Amino acid sequence: SPEQTLAVFTNVFERRKYSNYIATRYPSVNVSTAGDIGWAAVQVNAIGMTVATGQPFDEHWAWFMLAKKIDGQWRMAGNASNRQP
Questions:
Q1: First-to-last C-alpha distance (Å) of the chain
Q2: 1 contact partners, CB below 8 Å, separation of at least 6
Q3: CA 3, CA 70: separation in Å to the nearest integer?
Q4: Buried b vs exposed e over 35-68: b needs ≥16 C-beta within 10 Å?
């Protein structure tokens, strides 16, 4: 739900402060022909600091999210991500 999504991202943004979040490739967002499955593939460079430690970070991430339409509402069905060392 929108409320659950907000809770997840609020937690992320309380722990990390971003000065830049830059797409390094144009995101790919698609919906199946049947209209019941959707996915997004994204690559970003995230720069900022970790709030608890003040430690800076400069990370390159790729992530993929899968969503499924159930009873007329989109639900997250999967997520995979990796960080380049």
A1: 33
A2: 73
A3: 17
A4: eeebbeebbbebebeeeeeeeeeeeeeeeebebe
The predicted structure's pLDDT at residue 43: 96
Tell me the pLDDT band of 12, cut-offs 50, 70 and 90. Answer: confident
Number of H helices, E strands in the chain: 1, 4
Structure tokens at 27: 């995101």
Dist. CA 54–CA 66, nearest whole Å? 33
* Paired sense of beta strands 16-31 and 73-84, if any: unpaired
Residue 1 has pLDDT above 80, yes or no: no
Shortest CA distance to 28 belongs to which of 37, 38, 16? 38
